[in-house]
């Protein structure tokens, strides 16, 4: 199996003017007829008259070039046609079997409805085509299906014809085939309109299965907020008269930005106060925004080749992060995003699948829809924004669209636009795309009483010298800023000197996490405590608390626990018990974040050799210390906050619930199950119900099963809530391989629905102490082997659990290696899984 390399990119010899497709869908087969008008690429100077078209698992019925039988042959993974003119019309008829397609890639069925997923290479499983993002075409799509059975027949663009049992769609904007979509089935429709800034009326439609129609209101409102935010912040409007979203239960990813016809995993559409948590609401809004924002960053300007994936994903994630930050609480959003980045992306950087934000090669492109491409990619865009400021960044965006609207381009093209619009040199900055791994930086400072100078020494420990913004402030002992701004770091070693410092300042480094690096500073324990209480940068308040928790967990002797707990107590008391001193920590969501310990997964990264049991025990010890010290205070705060209030999604209300529920969690661990059970019974929203259920399952107690059963009976008909029901059990400290096998026998467990697999197996694989043993591995491996046949994309995702095997304690390391070898030995191993295993065993 040969990888595909970025350096081997060549232009397509032929391009496409128009593509006319006809789909004839029945229960037992789908006939696809295509009429494609090709022309020689004027930019290519190669003399060739051969065309290769991608095609996988297709049954060719007929083929004509300019109405005559061409000189062609079927080859591996496609079709080769010879002796072609410079312009010609190709007509192909082929048969496919969506009814048997369990890979959820190409055209497939979910609950009897047909839908598609074409990114990255799914279109070639529909018909023969130039399946590459730099070949753009206008599409016209005719759909025929049994009109008794299927009432909704959709594709991209505008509906131009509808007669009994068939529709015709025309999408005027040229697009690559990965943005093609088709949906046929029975759905209920939620409809609304949006008037754009320039006065165009856009029809908004959300299609869901009929029983879900009462859970679409939030998504519709979120969609309108996305349209409005895009106009306000980026000055960008929607370009068609109709925008459709279809939600399906069976989907490999979160959602897909197909032009004018987004297809979503139901998880990211369906919402009601009774069925989703506060975090779910905000995540749903973010994904709806993300897919909408792709209309400009991804669809109108797309990627030249798949190595450029971060061009659209990094940029669009940055934009959706900004959307959420503008609509909710910026600092909390930042804390959550950085926590995800440091927990998962930094770990990916330490794993066998470490790769560049712009990868150099792939065997299976779907393995590169990763935290590195998405989240680290977004951090790089954020640094561009930090350097240029909002105005400069928007100038760069304008130039980018001016230059490339309608094109398929590269990451270099984007950065060049930012550079040219601002006269800013990004040459050295490009290391962020050409070097993998997380940069390590250290910082040491020195205050001189005599000459009142504060000297800062910054040192980079990486292969290359990165170019990045270091946002900082120097604070006096009341927390007032003496100096603040952005240092531009670019050399291996740099010194910055601040003069006229009458008192020794406390530095607050890397505010808002202004670069995705690992920073080691010489801050003392006391300075960190001070920053937890007094830094005006909420991110750094949280981050210093995290560092202190980390020390307390991993090296308890390294810090003074009493002093740290005194500071935490002040943070808690000042705000709630009308104490006399004023704290800067007023935001209850922030207090909740400060009270949340680093996850086991994050702690693993700090270990040379991962010992899951040791980490778990050490973390539990600290939890017990917290309870010992704060139990009374938690009770008081809990009763103060646990008063009936109608549900709202305001920062204030979200913060109240967050803090109340973390108190409940600690109280439950201390044995207060009755309190949790009371909340379980009286909760007026899923957020509080889930929180109480999570509190009840921390250990065995008399309420646990009553609550779980009650939850099941109340929600057994709700697919999304049932995912929570499964995942909460798989994550429980009482779960083990046997109990997971029991869950897999449950009548609502389904192997073919990725959401359900993620909620059972995905969750269990992160339940470290219970998963990491021979039986746990064997369970996972057997599932991977089954998925290799039915859904290799999800199989590869689960295989990635083993990507860290080399860092585990010897016994677990050896066991994981055996699993990798066992999977490698199976017959017909998919490219997806092969690539992951090969990297892991290299
Ligand atoms: N392009 C999708 C998204 O990230 C994933 N297929 O929005
Ligand atoms: Zn995306």
Automatic annotation (TrEMBL):
It is an enzyme of class 3 (hydrolase). This is Aminopeptidase N. Belongs to the peptidase M1 family. InterPro entries: Aminopeptidase_N-like_N, Aminopeptidase_N-like_N_sf, PepN_Ig-like_sf, Peptidase_M1, Peptidase_M1_dom, Peptidase_M1_pepN, Peptidase_M1_pepN_C, Peptidase_M1_pepN_C_sf. Residues 34-179 form the Aminopeptidase N-like N-terminal domain. GO terms for biological process: proteolysis. The keyword Chloroplast does not apply. Its cofactor is Zn(2+). Its EC number is 3.4.11.2. Residues 218-431 form the Peptidase M1 membrane alanine aminopeptidase domain. GO terms for molecular function: alanyl aminopeptidase activity; metallopeptidase activity; zinc ion binding. Residues 527-841 form the Peptidase M1 alanyl aminopeptidase C-terminal domain. Residues 437-521 form the Peptidase M1 alanyl aminopeptidase Ig-like fold domain. It catalyses: Release of an N-terminal amino acid, Xaa-|-Yaa- from a peptide, amide or arylamide. Xaa is preferably Ala, but may be most amino acids including Pro (slow action). When a terminal hydrophobic residue is followed by a prolyl residue, the two may be released as an intact Xaa-Pro dipeptide. Keywords: Aminopeptidase, Hydrolase, Metal-binding, Metalloprotease, Protease, Zinc. SUPFAM superfamilies: Leukotriene A4 hydrolase N-terminal domain, Metalloproteases ('zincins'), catalytic domain. The lineage of its organism: Bacteria, Pseudomonadati, Pseudomonadota, Gammaproteobacteria, Candidatus Pseudothioglobaceae. CDD domains: M1_APN.
